[in-house]
Write a structure and sequence with these properties.
Length: 133
């Protein structure tokens, strides 16, 4: 069995950070997470308003941003690849009453759908399109 060397502070049971420093770090991470969640929720709401419960690919969403002012502001010049990465990161997370769902993978593209959820129970409020994963 391999042995693991602990840093000297851990081995001597010396605190690496004080309790006040730890609490400050926790508070900072919490603020960052809340800001990110709020930004993600606003982004998903812009996508939902633009797609009106229709399925879409990241490429289609990027193309639609040319004619949808609110969506254009939300994607702020993101490429289709960046949009797809954000959709994958947000997949199945309830944000402001909405959730991004992967419907299907086809020939290198993913088909997405934004559905309504009941945040209290995180259950889909609307049945997914046929073939949803």
């Amino acid at each position: 069995m391999a042995t693991v060397s602990l840093p000297r502070a851990a081995a001597a049971r010396e605190p690496v950070v004080t309790r006040a420093e730890f609490d400050a770090l926790v508070a900072r991470v919490t603020r960052i997470e809340h800001a990110r969640d709020a930004d993600d929720a606003a982004w998903v709401h812009a996508v939902a308003a633009s797609t009106a419960a229709a399925t879409f690919t990241a490429r289609e969403l990027r193309a639609h941003a040319r004619v949808d002012h609110a969506l254009r502001r939300a994607v702020r010049g993101m490429t289709a690849r960046e949009i797809g990465a954000r959709l994958r990161r947000l997949r199945d997370h309830a944000l402001g009453g909405l959730v991004v769902r992967l419907v299907k993978r086809t020939h290198g593209e993913r088909i997405w759908w934004v559905s309504v959820v009941d945040d209290r129970h995180a259950n889909p409020g609307v049945a997914p399109p046929s073939g949803a994963e």
